[in-house]
Each structure stands twice: as C-alpha cells, then as structure tokens.
Amino acid sequence: MVRVRFAPAPTGYLHLGGARTALFNWLFVKQQHGKFILRIEDTDVKRSTDESVNAILDSLKWLGISWDEGPYFQSQRTHIYQEYAKKLLQDNQAYYCYCSPSELEILRKKATGEAPGYDGRCRNLSPTQRQEYESSGRKPTIRFKSPSGLTQVNDLIRGKVSFDNALFGDFIIFKSDGMPTYNFACIIDDALMGITHVIRGEDHISNTPRQILLYQALGFKIPVFAHLPLILGLDKTPLSKRHGDVAIEHYRQEGYLPEALMNYLALLGWSTSQSQQIFSKEELLIKFSIDRVSKNPAIFDLEKLRWLNGEYIRELDIDSLTGLCWEYLNKIRNSKFEIRILKFKEIVKLFQERIKTLSDFVKQAEFFFVNSPKYHPSAVEQILMKDGVRQILEQVKDRLVQLEPFDTNSIEKTIRELADQLKIKASDIIHPLRVALTGDKVSPGLFEVVALLGKEKVQERLIKIRWENG
Ligand code: GLU
User: pTM for this one?
Assistant: First the structure.
C-alpha cells in the first residue's frame, strides 16, 4: 500500500511551492490507490500559529486536494520523539552536547570547507564533565553520532546523489528547548506513519542523507525519495515574495479558478511528451507520472497562469460563469447591489471573451454596477473634451431618451442615422459616447453596453458629465 504525506510547517500561508508539492503527492497517490497523510510540522512553537494551520487547510480544500488521514500535529507527539531519542542515547548512537550558541559560533568560523559540521567535541564527555555542565545550568542538545563516509540518496527524479557525512557531522536531533529538530521528527513520523514515498521540494535534498542515517540507526525501512525541481521566477532566482504574491489565497482572492491553478501547478516541473498545456483534474489523474518530472528548475510565469485561467473561463457555460462572477462581486463589494440576475447574466456574456480572471470582470464591468463610472483622465481629455463632442452627445441623449424599444438594434440604428444626418462618422459618436458611459476608451460592443445600462442610466450619465474640466 502506497502512503505519501504532505508536511507543511504552519508558519505562514500555503504558497505555490507547497501547493505544487501537495499536488504531486496527491496525483501520485491517487493513481496508486494509496493514502495521502496530512501532517502539520509545528515543532517551531514560536513561529507556528493556528491561523496558519487553518489557512493551509482552506487553501488545500479550495484547490481540491483532499487527504485521507490527519491532520496530525507534531507538537502533540513530542513524547514519541523523546522515546526514540532515548533509544539512540542508550545505544550510544547519540549524545548530549553542552556547547553554547556562542561556542558553536566560534567553532563554525574555524571549521574548514571539507568538514563544516560540528567537530564532535562533546562526544566523549566523562560523567564528571557532564555533571559540571549540568550544575552550571546548561541545557543540552542531543546530537546524532554520524558515521564517517558517504551516504547515497537514491532519488526517483535525480538518480543517485552522494553526500559526504562530514558535510553535516554530528547533527542535532533534539534542541535545548526539549523539541525535536525537523530531521528527527520527520523521520520518526515518516517511519511510524508507514510512509512509502517521500515527495518534496529539492531544497530538502541536503536533509535526506541525515534522514537516511537516522533510518538506519533506528532500523527503520527507508522510503523512496523524489525531490521536485525548484521553482524560479522569470529572473531565474528562487521564487519568493519579491516576484509578487506567492500565496495560494492571493490567487483565490484575485479570482483565479481552482481548476486552472491546479492545472498550472501541475506544469511546474512536469510535462507530457506532446507538451499538452490544458488538463482537467481527471486527465491529470490519468496522465501524471513522476517519471516525467524534470530535474531542471521550473519557471513561474504569471502571464501564462493568467492565460490558462482565461482559457478556463471561456470554457465555462454561461450560467456557471454568471454564478462565479455574482459570488465574487458580492464578496468584494461590502454593499449589496440591485440588479436582476438575468440582466447580470447578459453583462457577464459581454465579458466572457475579454477577461482572464474574475477580478478582471470586476474591473472591466464595474461601470455597470456603480452610480457614476470612474473617468480615466486621458480618455476624457483626448476624446470627451474635443470640440463639438458636447453638442453631439446632447443630440444622442435627446434621441435615446425617446427611443422605444431600447434594444441593441434600435440603438445602433439611431446612432448611425444621427451620424448620417450630422455628416460625421459613426465612430465620432461611438467613441465619445463610450467614454461618457463607461469612463474608458475600451469596452465591449457599445450598442450592447448602452442597451444593458438602460435608458435611465444612460440619460443620467449624459446629463451628469462635467464639461468644464472632466
Ligand atoms: N516541514 C517541511 C517543510 O515544510 C517538510 C519537508 C518534508 O516534506 O520533509 O518544508
């Protein structure tokens, strides 16, 4: 039975990298009909928060990544880690270290490039030396006695990678505050939880030889490892806040669809031989394979994510998109607005081809839902303030006010006839009318916009324009 885990530290939100790790674990385990375990690695008591736990769970659920067991919390399992540390101490595979942080700092500065790890000076303390340290009030850490030699990591993605144990030396498994270190708690849990495959970010590969040594020391079975490639920004440096927002929650708030984001995350390091880009969840579950995960870093490209999200929006049937836009608009506006849902649907139709996210809809369609649109100064200056425009729009208003029925066809007819009578081009009416009604130079087809705004609003907007200074 295949068992994988996703093991975030609750010290912030779920970010793109974490979500990608969770997704690859999930896709892999679903295909194997195995179990996905969620484990919260909250041994860093000071930085872990309940808020962050909730945020991580919410983001996973929103993305559609479900777990079969957990969440387990490491902070509730300290007694288990202590037991295993005791066992290593008894077997003489670990020892108490009394070196203070400042002493360790001096050691670190002296250490050479080949053996930067701890030099093992507390390995063989006599009982009296220990007693002296204890009575002076020093709180010890527990260190693992690393054997000398090489440790080989056999990675599903990276192949065989060897590490010289001197790189880390006798590393700490229990901190002086009585909490286990990441490496120690992680392997105890992975072993006790029966994890068969550890799939995680490449940033952890240097931890893996330490973990292998611990598995061996405790007689546990070593799982299969797969280290996923780093995610870089367009500038080829590791993805971080500098590249913009990396929180999954941010993308939810910006009106990305979870299916599109899942699709995009799957492409961060994985591809098919045909370079297919769009995958439904069901298709991912069939086509994903660890064998086709690349060793090379993946590049996060926001424009590509936006493009993909736009493709998903265009694929939606109009009722679903209307529902999503309605919910989204209501969530971000504090006040309810009055509009019939049928009319709202007509508005959404106008934008389905033009938007890439739900927040694009709100930005582009906002003029429909407010009393007065936001006038872009450049549009006002270049188009509305031109000589003669005021008189033209006066006439447009007079005609439209009398128009019955007030529908797209008759609006178009009226405007074209007026242009003919005034011996101007239809665009000489359409452009200024668009700015007057929407505040901007671009919008969906103007005749549809006029019809959907309705006679009253059109009249009101044409009366309210301040001609003096925009
Ligand atoms: N808590 C670790 C992290 O969030 C987990 C690493 C692992 O999967 O072993 O990076």
Answer: 0.93
